[in-house]
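Please decode residue identities from the backbone states below.
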């Protein structure tokens, strides 16, 4: 197809997809489509339209592939580099991200419980946590590499630092979400602090905790990839991006970006599904299901 043909095709596809999405949105609540099905179909059409526009513009405007490769070229690189991409994914996500995410969120949650029990810790640890959260990742990563070595442990340490504070703040805020009337009722039943925590305050704090878990699901992957720029074995998403951009292999760089985006989106989606199952009683979840 000629360059002008690619441009015309992309514009026509965009117009048709726009019209289709507008029609689908108007069908919400009708017998044809449910809200849940529209929540899947409309984003898929929108995403496919962006890919077609990307393909058509890069080919129609003859943009050099070293600047912006078309999606077809990136897909070809993904298909031909599955073993390499899997090794990078395993090093970055399955080791550094998951370990750092679990440690950061777990320590943040336990620290929030300790702060809730002690006003002294609340006045001392929260400002310190705010200070740690403001530290730039490009300053923390080299130090963690010096402390924990070049393997995934140093990247997990960076992820831990990045995910600790959002979990801490959200959990502390969530623990105070239960109303005074409910707390007084638990007091009339002679409930202990732990009984009140488990049966009242943690359920009330669940939306806040899951909000932190969702935020950290994306922060963890970003932190691990950036940390790999400052020292890593010859494997990992961040290492591959840094190495291949120096060789001007931008299709491989975009392949790694695509894998990272899919992994981050899937991770976020899993956390969101768990949230819907745990906080089924929350008004926002009930409204989404109707």
């Amino acid at each position: 197809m000629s360059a002008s043909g690619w441009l015309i095709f992309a514009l026509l596809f965009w117009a048709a997809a726009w019209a289709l999405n507008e029609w689908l949105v108007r069908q919400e609540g009708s017998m044809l489509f449910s809200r849940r099905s529209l929540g899947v179909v409309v984003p898929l059409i929108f995403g496919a339209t962006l890919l077609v526009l990307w393909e058509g513009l890069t080919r129609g405007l003859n943009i050099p592939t070293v600047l912006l490769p078309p999606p077809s070229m990136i897909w070809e690189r993904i298909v031909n580099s599955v073993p390499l991409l899997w090794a990078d994914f395993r090093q970055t996500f399955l080791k550094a991200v998951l370990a750092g995410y679990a440690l950061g969120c777990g320590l943040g949650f336990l620290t929030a419980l300790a702060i809730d029990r002690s006003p002294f810790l609340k006045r001392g640890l929260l400002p310190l946590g705010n200070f740690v959260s403001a530290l730039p990742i490009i300053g923390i990563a080299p130090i963690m590499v010096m402390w924990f070595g070049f393997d995934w442990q140093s990247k997990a340490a960076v992820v831990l630092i990045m995910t600790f504070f959002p979990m801490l703040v959200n959990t502390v805020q969530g623990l105070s979400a239960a109303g005074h009337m409910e707390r007084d009722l638990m007091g009339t039943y002679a409930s202990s602090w732990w009984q009140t925590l488990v049966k009242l305050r943690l359920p009330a704090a669940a939306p806040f905790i899951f909000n932190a878990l969702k935020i950290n699901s994306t922060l963890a992957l970003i932190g691990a990839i950036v940390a790999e720029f400052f020292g890593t074995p010859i494997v990992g998403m961040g290492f591959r991006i840094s190495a291949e951009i120096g060789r001007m292999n931008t299709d491989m760089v975009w392949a790694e970006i695509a894998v990272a985006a899919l992994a981050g989106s899937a991770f976020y989606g899993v956390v969101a599904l768990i949230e819907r199952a745990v906080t089924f009683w929350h008004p926002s979840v009930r409204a989404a299901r109707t």
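Observation: The chain has twelve helices and no strands.
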